[in-house]
Specification:
It is a single chain. The chain is globular. Helix 4 (about 95-105) packs parallel to helix 5 (about 120-130). By secondary structure, the chain is an alpha/beta fold. It has two domains: about 1-160, Response regulator (Rossmann fold); about 165-245, Response regulator (Rossmann fold). It has a six-stranded mixed β-sheet, sandwiched between helices. It has helices at about 20-25, 45-55, 70-80, 95-105, 120-130, 140-155, 160-170, 175-185, 190-200, 205-215, 220-230, 235-245, and strands at about 1-5, 35-40, 60-65, 85-90, 110-115, 135.
């Protein structure tokens, strides 16, 4: 594991000062007062170097650490408290899927974007179910990678309508029947309004698009999203979208 933070570890890394935690370090949206802290996990040193160079040239971002496999990633996430981890899915020792599940199960976990050479497959889908906020192909244009990191750092998922269509095709598998029953039972905990918002998330809509469709303001939409996440015991909007698809509400 390579620590790329300049100088000695200090209070912002959350290891030498007991007074800070991730909530203290997080500031979302346009009012963000500090750089977005990024960690890079990939067994290919060239990929890590390319991503570090991509984000290292802007004061908006700070690459705080790198790791070469999932085991190092889990340790790194606890030590450096990144906002966003770019996580390769296929690595030796511990793969990105296992690392994602372990990291996302910790209190106040970072957001995770899965990196993959391929399109939607069982590994990517399982990573999304495990709490990843989205996925990127490794040949994604740099400006789109930067936009994706901004998006998940501010608490949004990355399921565009085109990705949603791909998921619909992919989840049509033999286990769909069992997941359908479980998803429908889980969604019964929601109010009618919360279920409508959940369906909007399933479409890959933004808060503004959901508000426009349902006739409510963005703060109201955000409130519904927060409540339905708590009721469903889920981490992010992507998991809600997958649950909605499993329940066949679209």
């Amino acid at each position: 594991m390579e620590d790329v933070t300049a100088g000695p570890v200090n209070a912002v890394d959350g290891v030498t000062s007991g007074g800070a935690d991730r909530d203290d370090l997080t500031a979302g949206g346009p009012a963000r007062q500090r750089p977005i802290r990024i960690a890079i996990v990939d067994d290919d040193a060239m990929v890590r170097t390319g991503l570090r160079l991509l984000f290292g040239g802007s004061p908006e971002f700070e690459v705080v650490a790198e790791a070469a496999d999932g085991a190092e990633a889990v340790t790194m996430a606890a030590a450096h408290w990144p906002d966003v981890i770019l996580m390769d899915i296929r690595m030796p020792r511990v793969d990105g899927l296992t690392a994602t599940q372990r990291i996302r199960s910790a209190p106040n976990p970072p957001q995770i974007i899965v990196l993959t050479t391929f399109n939607i497959d069982e590994y990517v889908l399982e990573a999304l179910r495990g709490g990843a906020s989205g996925f990127l192909l490794k040949d994604t244009p740099p400006k789109d990678i930067i936009a994706a990191v901004r998006m998940v750092a501010d608490g949004a998922g990355m399921l565009s309508p085109s990705v949603v269509r791909g998921l619909i095709d992919y989840v049509a598998d033999p286990a769909a029947g069992s997941r359908r029953s479980q998803a429908k039972a889980q969604l019964k905990a929601l109010t009618d309004r919360e279920r409508e918002v959940a369906v909007g998330l399933g479409h890959g809509w933004s808060n503004a698009e959901i508000g426009g469709e349902l006739g409510m303001g963005i703060p109201t939409v955000k409130g519904h999203v927060s409540r339905l996440l708590a009721k469903l015991g889920l981490n992010n909007r992507v998991q809600v979208a997958l649950l909605v698809h499993d329940a066949e509400l679209l």
